[in-house]
Amino acid sequence: MEGFIVLLILLALIVLAAVVVFIAGLRIYNRLIRWRNQVKNAWAQIDVQLKRRYDLVPNLVETAKGYMKHERETLEAVIKARQMAIDAKNVPDQIQAENQLTGTLRSLMMLTENYPDLKANQNMMALQEELTSTENKIGFARQHYNDQVLTYNTGIQQFPANLIAGTFNFEKEVFFELEDQEQRVAPKVAF
User: Fold this and answer.
1) CA distance linking residue 121 with residue 103, whole number of Å
2) H or E stretch including 125?
3) Side-chain half-sphere of 182: how many Cα atoms within 13 Å?
4) Which residue from 10, 38, 47, 155 lies 20 to 30 Å from 73 (Cα-Cα)?
5) What are phi and psi of 71, to 5 degrees?
6) Count of other CB atoms within 10 angstroms of residue 119
7) Distance (Å, rounded) from C-alpha 116 to C-alpha 87?
8) 10-24 per-position pLDDT tens digit
9) Residue 26, Cβ density class (10 Å: 0-12 exposed, 13-18 middle, ≥19 buried)
10) How far apart are CA 146 and CA 152, in angstroms?
11) Does residue 112 sit within a domain?
12) For 49-98, how does the pLDDT look when each residue is reduced to its tens digit (9 = 90+)?
């Protein structure tokens, strides 16, 4: 009888331990789901701002086109980069396309400096202001996205969450980083 009670207590402890492990695993799984959804939400916020920029680009190009007749290559590069960004199918492709679009827009803005009439055009000034505002919003959205990716990637790599992440195919997310090293350098301003 005494052996039976010990066996029953041991069995109860094993069941209790299994329940505790199950609940801990469930909490970790739910935390990973929340982090993954936060990454997706952060990307959606970037996507909203990128779409806003895509809508601005044709207006910017059309306004500049009349003044910049000799800069056709730059204008075509901006349009091509915009279309590549719109057509991107996944986050890594989108990041690459966005970096290219940012570079071509930077080239376009630098060229406007050579055209005083264009620089003074009210439509162009308004579009540049809107583009600057949008670029700032994209920058903040990128930072938020990268913060969420950091939290998520760290979470799926830490023990014991990495066991659950591996079991349920949680994969690392990609940071939104600059590819063009020139974008890391502050522009030189000369008066």
Assistant:
1) 23
2) helix 122-157
3) 9
4) 47
5) -110, 35
6) 13
7) 34
8) 999 999 999 999 999
9) exposed
10) 10
11) yes
12) 989 888 888 888 887 877 776 677 888 888 899 999 899 888 889 888 98
Give the domain extent around 99: 46-181
| Cβ contact 174:99 at 8 Å | no
Question: Quick check: is 161 in a domain?
Answer: yes
Asked, for residue 61, whether it belongs to a domain, the answer is: yes
The total number of structural domains in the chain stands at 1
Which among 182, 128, 142 has a CA at the least distance from the CA of 50?
142
Q: Which two structure tokens, joined as six digits, stand for 59?
A: 């207006």
- What tokens appear for 62 in the block? 């059309």
Non-local (6+) Cβ contacts of 183 within 8 A are 99, 102, 103, 106
| Distance, CA of 15 to CA of 85 (rounded, Å) | 54
Length of the chain counted residue by residue: 191
Between vectors from CA 165 to CA 160 and to CA 171, what angle results, nearest 5°?
A: 135
How many CA atoms lie less than 13 Å away from 59 in the CB half-sphere? Answer: 15
Torsion of the alpha carbons at 143, 144, 150 and 151, rounded to the nearest 10: 160
